[in-house]
Design a protein that fits this description.
Elements lengths: L22 E2 L22 E7 L4 H10 L3 E6 L4 E6 L2 H5 L4 E6 L2 E5 L34 H6 L17 E5 L20 E2 L33 H10 L15 E6 L6 E3 H14 L3 E4 L1 E3 L14 H23 L3 E5 L12 E5 L8 E4 L14 E7 L18 E4 L17 E4 L2 H6 L14 E6 L2 E8 L2 H19 L1 E3 L2 E3 L2 H11 L10 E3 L5 E3 L17 H4 L5
Parallel strand pairs: 7-9, 7-11, 8-9, 11-13, 13-16, 16-17
Antiparallel strand pairs: 1-3, 2-4, 2-5, 3-4, 6-10, 6-12, 14-15, 18-20, 19-20, 21-22, 23-24
Length: 558
Amino acid sequence: MSVALLGGLGAPSSAPVIPGVPVALTSPVALDTPSPSGSATAAGQAGDYLVFYVDGGRAAAQRAAEAAGGTVRAHDDRLGYLLVRTSASERIGADPAVVGVARDRPIGRTAGAGRTSPGATRPDGAARAGERRAGGAEPLAGRQWDMKMIGATPTGSYAKARGSHKVLVGVMDTGVDGRHPDIAPNFNRALSRNFVTDQPTDPNGRKLDGPCEYQGCKDPADVDDDGHGTHVASTIGSPINGIGVAGVAPDVSLVNLRAGTDSGFFFLKPTLDALEYAADIGVDVVNMSFYVDPWTFNCPDNPGDTPAERSEQRAILEGMRRAVNYARSHGVTLITAIGNAGGDLGKPKTDTSSPDFPKGSEKNRSVDNSCRNVPAELDGVISVSAVGPSGRKAPYSDYGTEQTDIAAPGGDVFDGGTALRGKDREILAAAPEHVLRAQGRLDAKGMPKDNSVIRECHAGKCAYYQYMEGTSMAAPHVTGVAALIVGRFGKPGPGGLQMDPAEVERLLYATATPKGCPSPRTYRYGTGETQVCEGPASRNGFFGHGLVDAARAATVTR
């Protein structure tokens, strides 16, 4: 997925210290800078490690690190970890003051990026004449079956609640194209940050993010070289401006909290830093359409893993748990995609895809329900499953009675339950032009080569939109509805408005449309997969508390 092109302006390198960045102990180390070779170090080689310590155990953990010959480069007392340069991580991890030790390296990827699917080709990909605005809708509203499904229409939620620019919505993803005509009016460039450093190659020399476009491999905060984050941001909050599409909450402020590299992988520490920063500046809702790797399932004590691997998984679980708690305690509602493996997260048996960085590190291992997918299975995070245009659960969407909290449109190209065909069954949202060009989706004149991309022009200026499907596309619908709730009931606070995440969650579920399991409950998809829905209509493994409903959220009383 690596795309490397120029574009946009970001925060200058001389920007002041950002809240949420840990304090240096021994030297002024920039904590979002990876150690050499992307910090993916083999046993016995020096690298940077995040050492998470028990409550009150910082001094003991520091002594353990120094006794093992390590150098403590920085610390973060809010999340309880040290950044240590060491070649003896296992020795440090064995100390009773240490919860877990994780390498500071890319350990995540987007949950729903770039799913490909067949569909009848529309030759030019241009907006159809009949799609021009009708009844106050945006030009491409006719293609947004997802917004109709949840009541985000001119006669639905838009007539009652559109959010507010005082509501800050954080997009933790691969970046946001802040210059896209259908993003720019709501893009908060001043607060947006990029917490990652791109890596041209992985530790084995294979291409990862590709050549760096900017000094230090640091993209500006309004650049998205993948397209995934821009699509997510558009679904949340594209404005009603007579261009393209409208998002669920078209009047909110969008804040780029970039935690993923161009190739779609995430570093653990930038993910932690992004959550801390969101909390410190008063962000109200954060969308997390990714999962943290290199372990699909993080097992605290799996006998099939080495001591170092177990320590790393414990560190991921504990570090993310602390970051989630910190963010929620500061008024941040956290929403995530549940995942695209089509499995029951409550009954995992095998994991053949971990560790998935660098490529070729995967192994077969047995797992059970003590192993967690992160952040989808963390307490305090709202996990979203995906449905297609007929309302059935999409076959790719993960599920589980303990894991699924709510459902939303995510697209399903195989869903034949409606008159929609091919790509029209997916989710349409904004796409960066430079990414589409790099992917070869546009011809020399800028016209789409197939029906996965739509070109829409207004007043001589054209913008691009792309069809995608995945739980990554479902989560931003819920994020947008959460933003509507904060806009209606939030009180003045840091960043503009603030609302207790527990109350936002309660209203999300109270306004959702209950949706029972299919009959029969054992469902065989056309792909041959068999999935079983368990639980009552009020809360089940496919749809959680039901289908998110923007129209009801726009009118509900407390």
